[in-house]
Design a protein that fits this description.
With about 190 residues, the protein is mostly helical. The protein has one domain. The termini are close together.
């Protein structure tokens, strides 16, 4: 896939994430994690692996402003870094999948990335948010219902999981279709040069 198309996908992904904040039902329904993961699966040019992080940072700046305006809360830098680390964890997952080249490993990698993001970011919220008691019950609350003034965190996980699976499937299907159109071997069978 040409570099320009890859960059366009990332810009669209960041735009989607920003637009989705205005539709609460779409909270955490974004393609950035899937694109980060799939970039490591498909692209040999590791510089392209960094583009989703730029989209994440730009959209985080907007989302932080939005949360400050609506909820009177801003994100802390440690939490921003933890979120970025969760995205960074998708890179070795993608590289691992690229070495094993199978649809089941692709599915397993996408599921694992979603689960890591969910558990780590909600654990971070439990640790930093004074609204949670620092017990196992408080951690369970952070992972399931969250704080009462917000939608349940399990809904955010549902959206994360569905979007990661959907966008991973769409990205992989687009890459496979591109390989077929070029008459080359399946990109999943061999990693594409970006």
């Amino acid at each position: 896939m040409p570099l320009a198309v890859s960059l366009l996908l990332i810009v669209l992904a960041a735009g989607w994430r920003i637009a989705a904040v205005h539709a609460p039902a779409l909270s955490n329904f974004a393609p950035l994690m899937a694109l980060t993961f799939c970039g490591a699966v498909y692209f040999r040019d590791k510089r392209l692996w960094l583009v989703p992080f730029a989209a994440l940072l730009v959209s985080d700046l907007y989302l932080d402003h939005h949360h400050a305006t609506i909820f009177g809360e801003t994100w802390t830098w440690p939490s921003v870094l933890i979120r970025a680390a969760c995205f960074a964890a998708a890179l070795p997952l993608g590289a691992w999948v690229a070495q094993r080249k199978g649809w089941l490993t692709l599915l397993g990698g996408a599921l694992t990335g979603s689960l890591i993001f969910y558990v780590v970011t909600n654990t971070d919220a439990w640790v930093r948010d004074p609204g949670y008691v620092k017990t196992f019950a408080g951690w369970a609350q952070a992972l399931t219902v969250g704080r009462p003034e917000f939608p349940p965190t399990i809904w955010f996980f549902r959206n994360t999981l569905v979007s990661d699976l959907l966008f991973t499937g769409l990205f992989a299907a687009a890459m496979e279709f591109a390989a077929l159109r070029r008459g080359t071997a399946s990109l999943f069978g061999q990693r594409a040069a970006a």
